[in-house]
């Protein structure tokens, strides 16, 4: 199929994910348009992280297909058989997706700069000079230019998370996944991280899939909100609608609890 701007950035088609006997996603369908900022909300255990981890290939679906910009992501149909796609193609599509986690997951034995240039050099094949120049620009963007030679452990949680954001952006992803990136932070550090993300949303066309309990942030940044319950989308709307006049009782309950 020829690609164009209407090809979804992400498409889940009948995705099934089980952990042992626990079926977490049971035929999930949804798609995200290019450049969309979609927030996933819903109670703990409803499958939000699992969806992001599937997109990071940290988990593998037991059934169904994922497409990224129209390309099969981990599996494809050959005739009526669902088969893994070859590793080489997989790693090429895999690169289009970046993720920032709740726990920053920086390499403690590397400096801030080394953390950021590692993958661009080894995965994208950038020269060291180019990777450093790009990393410095990103550090500037997240407000940490002067920390380039520090160890992550010397930084506050909020600063570490901003480094993690810069590291994800250094891979030049088309899609950025954010999983409760402010949940591990002291309250006074949250605003800086959200400010950086707001800036990225305003200045790039990266497709963003966001899991957050920061409803004000979700409202400002996202153009679409999906409410999950037990692995299913039970309601979806633009943020204004879902936060002011949610229709589903579970959504109303959930929002009453978090707001
Ligand atoms: P959320 O992010 O919405 O809180 P998760 O995607 O983390 O939800 O979890 C969805 C369900 O999957 C939960 O029942 C959780 O216990 C289960 N689950 C998630 N990861 C694992 C795992 N690695 N092993 C077993 N069960 C898991
Ligand atoms: Mg989660």
Describe what you observe in this structure:
This protein has 259 residues and is of the alpha/beta class. The protein has a domain of 70 residues. 37% of the residues lie in helices and 26% in strands. The protein has nine helices and twelve strands. The strands form three sheets. Strands 8-9-10-3-11-12 form a six-stranded mixed β-sheet, with helices on both faces. α4 crosses α5 and α5 runs parallel beside α6. The protein starts with 9 loop residues before the first strand and ends with a helix. 37% of the residues are buried. Magnesium ion binds next to α1.
Fill in the keyword field for this structure.
alpha/beta; 12 strands; globular; binds adenosine-5'-diphosphate; binds magnesium ion; 259 residues
Number of helices: 9
Summarize model confidence as the mean pLDDT: 96
Give a short account of the largest sheet. 6 strands, mixed
Order of helices and strands: EEEHEEEEHEHHHEHEHEEHH
Number of strands: 12
Overall shape: globular
**Within the largest sheet, what's the order of strands?**
8-9-10-3-11-12
How much of the sequence is in beta strands? 25-35%
Which residues form runs of ≥5 with pLDDT under 50? none
Straight-line distance between termini: 43 Å
Please specify the SSE layout and strand pairing:
Elements: E1 10-19, E2 22-32, E3 37-41, H1 48-55, E4 63-68, E5 71-72, E6 75-78, E7 81-84, H2 87-94, E8 97-100, H3 112-122, H4 128-141, H5 157-170, E9 175-179, H6 187-203, E10 207-211, H7 215-221, E11 224-229, E12 232-237, H8 239-244, H9 249-258
Parallel strand pairs: 3-10, 3-11, 8-9, 9-10
Antiparallel strand pairs: 1-2, 1-4, 4-5, 6-7, 11-12
Helix pairs in contact: 3-4, 3-5, 4-5, 5-6
């Amino acid at each position: 199929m020829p690609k164009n701007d209407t090809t979804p950035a992400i498409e889940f088609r009948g995705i099934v994910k089980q952990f042992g006997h626990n079926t977490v996603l049971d035929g999930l369908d949804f798609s995200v348009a290019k450049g969309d900022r979609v927030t996933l909300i819903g109670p703990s255990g409803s499958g939000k992280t699992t969806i992001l981890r599937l997109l990071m290939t940290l988990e593998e679906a037991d059934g169904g297909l994922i497409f990224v910009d129209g390309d099969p992501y981990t599996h494809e149909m050959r005739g009526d058989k669902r088969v893994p796609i070859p590793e080489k193609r997989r790693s090429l599509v895999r690169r289009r997706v970046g993720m920032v986690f709740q726990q920053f997951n920086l390499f403690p034995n590397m400096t801030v700069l080394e953390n950021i240039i590692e993958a661009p050099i080894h995965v994208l094949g950038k020269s060291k000079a180019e990777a450093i120049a790009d990393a410095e620009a990103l550090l500037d963007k997240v407000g940490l230019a002067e920390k380039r030679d520090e160890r992550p452990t010397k930084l506050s949680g909020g600063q570490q998370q901003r480094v993690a954001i810069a590291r994800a952006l250094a891979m030049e992803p088309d899609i950025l996944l954010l999983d409760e990136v402010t949940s591990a932070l002291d309250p006074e550090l949250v605003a800086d991280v959200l400010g950086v993300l707001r800036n990225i949303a305003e200045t790039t066309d990266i497709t963003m899939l966001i899991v957050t309990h920061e409803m004000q942030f979700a409202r400002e940044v996202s153009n679409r909100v999906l409410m999950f319950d037990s692995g299913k989308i039970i309601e979806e709307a633009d943020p204004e609608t879902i936060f002011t006049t949610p229709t589903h009782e579970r959504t109303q309950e959930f929002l009453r609890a978090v707001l």
